[in-house]
């Protein structure tokens, strides 16, 4: 019974982080901030959900660890690819207005 309660708490925490990630996707002003809000919050939320399921159903731990490792590897790589493509397309950050990648490229040339 205690495992179900603790697992349920992790499921609720994960759902809250997923909801905050979705809210960040709607509320953030530009693409780069949306990527950060979506990636960080959903990764933490998904891992919390996986941990809650592992606590409730310990016999599934090996499969869930593999799924969690897959998410930990692919989520940052995917967001990086989206950010690089947006920067290559000419997208500029709205909040800071500073493009550090472009500054680095100018210094190297």
Question: Would you kindly provide a brief summary of this structure?
Answer:
The protein has 109 residues and is an all-alpha fold. It contains four helices and no strands.
Going by helix content, strand content and strand pairing, the class is mainly alpha
What is the multimeric organization of the chains shown? Answer: single chain
Query: SSE string, helix = H, strand = E?
Result: HHHH
Integer tally of domains: 1
Uncertain stretches = none
Sheet with most strands? none
Average predicted local confidence, pLDDT: 89
Straight-line distance between termini: 64 Å
Our Rg estimate from Cα atoms comes to: 18 Å
| Count of DSSP H/I helices | 4
Strand content: under 5%
Described by the principal axes of the CA atoms, the overall outline is: elongated
Q: Would you report the number of β strands?
A: 0
Question: How would the blueprint of this fold be written?
Answer:
Elements: H1 2-27, H2 31-56, H3 61-88, H4 100-108
Helix pairs in contact: 1-2, 2-3
Structure description:
By secondary structure, this protein is mainly α. The chain has one domain (2-108). It has four helices and no strands. The longest helix has 28 residues, at 61-88.
